[in-house]
Design brief:
By secondary structure, the chain is α+β, with helices and mostly antiparallel strands. It has helices at residues 2-17, 35-42, 54-76, 83-107, 113-122, 143-155, 159-170, 192-199, 233-263; strands spanning 24-28, 31-34, 128-129, 132-140, 181-186, 211-213, 216-226, 229-230. This is Major antigenic peptide / PpiC-type peptidyl-prolyl cis-trans isomerase.
Length: 269
């Protein structure tokens, strides 16, 4: 019963949010099947019925038609006089009252730009971006093989082009087909020996000595290095606003609940 009540509340909340929807896609005994009806069937407000494939549209529409027919049949049967229906309806009314009241309470919460900026200035440690590296590697089984690859790089005119070629020919593992490319990663997210070897390089440099890890011997080429930084206020202001709104709302509801508890006569058995 609780699942049914919760589902109906969600349906009513969804419908009240889009009461003005004018689109309709069919009629059943003269009654329109609207976009709201379809959203209820889809159970996800983020899904746009209009962009679904035709077979899926047909399926959803048929479900909405069946739902309307079955609903009409239920009402004709006199279900509204049933005690369980009346009990559930009272429960729905109370839960929906709480839901709508809380929505209205949230709408009244305001956050000023000064509050947002103050939070940013006091919490800059929360908005740090770690240093990142972009690298390639040639992974080999033996130190001798790694040294051999380094010798070839030392003699090459175009170091990067040669590195990519050698990675494709010599490297062990899945990155060989991508010229040893590892992408961008936080500088301390690799195994310690690899991270240390990569951090020691400048962009455009390769390791002159093999870097040994638990996976084997690496020759590393550093594509780029981005130092640690702090995101600007403009980058995070929307997230800060949302956080402060939610935080104020939680505190407001908590304060209201505490006040009501003090005023109420509560008996716990």
């Amino acid at each position: 019963m609780r699942k049914i009540v919760t589902s109906v509340i969600a349906t009513l909340a969804l419908s009240t949010a889009t009461l003005n929807a004018a689109d309709y896609y069919a009629t059943v005994n003269g009654e329109k099947i609207t976009k709201n009806d379809l959203k209820v069937v889809l159970r996800n407000p983020n899904i746009d019925f209009d962009v679904l494939p035709k077979d899926k549209k047909d399926q959803v529409l048929q479900q909405a038609i069946e739902k309307k027919l079955l609903t009409d049949e239920a009402i004709k049967s006199g279900i509204e006089k049933d005690k369980s229906f009346k009990d559930a309806l009272e429960k729905i009314k109370k839960d929906l009252a709480l839901e709508i009241w809380m929505q209205n309470q949230f709408k009244d919460i305001k956050v000023t730009q000064n509050e947002q900026k103050d939070f940013y200035n006091k919490s800059k440690d929360k908005f740090k971006k770690p240093a990142t590296l972009e690298a390639r590697h040639i992974l080999l089984k033996t130190e001798k093989d790694a040294k051999n690859a380094i010798e070839k790089l030392n003699k090459a005119k175009n170091k990067k082009e040669t590195f990519i070629k050698l990675a494709g020919e010599m490297s062990k593992g899945p990155t060989a087909s991508k010229g040893g490319y590892l992408g961008k990663f936080q500088e301390n997210k690799m195994v310690p020996e690899f991270s240390a070897g990569a951090k020691a390089l400048k962009a455009g440099e390769y390791s002159k000595k093999p870097v040994k890890t638990q996976f084997g011997y690496h020759v590393i080429y550093l594509e780029s290095k981005t130092p640690a930084s702090t995101m600007s206020y403009n980058e995070v202001k929307d997230k800060i606003k949302e956080f402060l709104l939610q935080d104020k709302f939680r505190k407001s509801i908590s304060d209201t609940a505490s006040r009501l508890k003090k005023q109420a006569k509560i008996v716990i058995k």
